[in-house]
Amino acid sequence: MNAVVVPFALGFVLVVGAAWALTLYNGLVASRRECDRAWSNIDVLLKQRHDELPRLVEVCRGHAAFERGTLEAVVAARSLLQEARTMPAQARASSSLSAALRNLFAVAEGYPDLKASEGFLRLQGRIAELENQIADRRELYNAAVTAWNTRLEQLPGVFLARLSGMQPRELWRAPADERAAPRLGLA
C-alpha cells in the first residue's frame, strides 16, 4: 500500500506545484499586458494630439504678428515626440510638448484676432480635451505599472519573475520643472 501512496502523493504535489507556478506566471503575464494596454491607450491619444498640431500651427501662422519662437517650440517638441522610441523618452517628449502648448495658448491670449478665430478655438478645445484624456490615461498607466512592479517584488512571484527575465517598468513622472511651484507675476 505504501508503494502506491508515495508515488501518488509525489505526483499530486508535482501537479499542484506545476499548476500553482503556471497560475502565478499567467498572472504576471496578464499584469504585464495590462501595462502594455495602458501605454497603448496613451499612445493613441498622443497620435491624435500629434495629428492636430499642424492645423493649430497653421491657424496661428495665419496671424502674421504671432510669435515665431512659440510656434517653433511646438514644432520642435512635436518632432522630439515623433523621434522618441522608448516609453520614458516618449513620456519626456510628451511633457515637453504639453509645456510648449501651454505656452502657445498663453501667448495667444495677447492676440484678440487669434482668440476670436473659430478654427483656433475649435483646435484649442480639441487639444485641451486630448491633454485631459492623456492625463487620465497617465494615471491608469501608473496604476498598471505600480501593480506590475509590486507583483515583481512580492513573494513568491519575485522568483518566477527573475527566472523569466521580467523587469520593472518606470512610472510616468512629470519633469522637475513641471513639479516646481509656479512663479506668479503678481505685483
Summarize the structure.
With 187 residues, this protein is mainly alpha-helical. It contains seven helices and no strands.
Give a structural overview.
This protein is mainly α and 187 residues long. The protein has helices at residues 2-61, 68-83, 87-108, 112-116, 118-153, 157-164, 176-179. The longest helix is centred in the first third of the chain and has 60 residues, at 2-61. The chain is rod-shaped, with a radius of gyration of 25 Å. It starts with a helix and ends in an 8-residue tail after the last helix.
Strand count, sense and barrel status of the largest sheet are: none
- Principal-axis shape: rod-shaped
Label the CATH architecture. Up-down Bundle
Tally of alpha and pi helices: 7
CATH class: Mainly Alpha
Strand elements, count: 0
End-to-end gap:
93 Å
How would you spell out the order of helices and strands? Answer: HHHHHHH
The figure for the number of domains is 1
- What is the radius of gyration? 25 Å
Poorly predicted regions are none
CATH superfamily: LemA-like domain
Overall pLDDT: 88
Beta-strand percent range: under 5%
